[in-house]
Write a structure and sequence with these properties.
The complex is a heterodimer.
Chain A: E1 2-9, E2 15-22, H1 57-67, E3 68-77, H2 79-94, E4 98-102, E5 105-109, E6 114-125, E7 127-137
Antiparallel strand pairs in A: 1-2, 4-5, 6-7
Chain B: E1 3-16, H1 17-33, E2 36-40, E3 43-47, E4 53-62, E5 65-75
Antiparallel strand pairs in B: 2-3, 4-5
Classes of the chains: A alpha+beta, B alpha+beta.
């Protein structure tokens, strides 16, 4: 398996941080040096375009499934490739939208203003690791109204 | 740099998204420079990422809760690593 990252600007000017994993036989990873103005490494991930005007039972079921879903990606890669993923995630945080694609799996996250961050790092012998976990609650102000009486 | 004992660093806090972005940017800079220094109060840990990294990303959502975990693991080179190298030479004639 090999990994690809792409970042593109959509028509609505929102940044899409796209993560995908593809079989090595299907595509070659073209590496982009960090700091290049062109951020796209490859953009061969399968993408689904759904029309919001024609909501079928399938799309409703998908929406229900999206309320509880997860996506995991694990791969060994060069430092430059890992940095590209990080930068895509940073962009997603700034734009309040991070979308992950892995084969047919997709998950879209909407980071909120307040985020619980948990940083763990350890080193023993030759092995080192660092983990960065972020979690937040989606808050819809329209759901709550509080009024005070005079 | 090889360590005989395990060293740990833990930090948990509620932050705004801009601060989280800055943390991640610092982490990116650390990976680029090969030196990540984590410091919080009396606790600190220096890491030296290099070579191939194993990246593990978990993104999840359940009802109104969303989470994203990024985990990176790697092996730091040791000074005596060269002595472990294996060389195989074959002669066709």
């Amino acid at each position: 398996m090999t990994a690809t990252v792409s970042k593109r600007k959509s028509n609505s000017n929102e940044t899409l941080a796209q993560l995908s994993a593809q079989e090595k036989t299907q595509s070659k990873v073209s590496k982009t040096k960090v700091g290049d103005t062109v951020k796209s490494i490859t953009a061969k991930a399968p993408r689904k375009v759904e029309s919001e005007t024609s909501k079928s039972d399938k799309s409703i079921a998908n929406e229900e499934q999206q309320k509880k879903s997860k996506l995991q990606y694990r791969n060994q890669m060069s430092l430059d490739e890992a940095v590209a993923y990080f930068e895509a995630i940073v962009d997603g945080l700034k734009n309040k939208k991070i979308e992950f694609h892995k084969n047919d799996e997709t998950i879209s996250l909407k980071p909120q203003e307040q985020i619980v961050v948990e940083v763990k790092a350890s080193a023993k012998g030759e092995r080192s690791k660092v983990s960065f976990k972020m979690s937040w609650s989606e808050f819809d102000p329209a759901k709550l109204t509080i009024k005070s009486k005079d | 740099m090889s360590r005989s004992s395990r060293e740990d660093f833990n930090f948990e806090s509620l932050q705004d998204s801009q601060s989280i972005g800055r943390y991640l940017e610092e982490l990116v800079d650390g990976f680029k420079s090969g030196k990540i220094e984590l410091v919080h109060e009396d606790s600190s840990l220096e890491l030296n990422p290099e070579g191939l990294l194993r990246l593990d990303i978990k993104a999840g959502r359940k009802k109104d809760k969303q989470s994203l975990r990024i985990k990176i693991t790697w092996r730091e080179k040791t000074e005596d690593k060269e002595s472990d190298e294996l060389t195989i030479v074959t002669k066709s004639d």
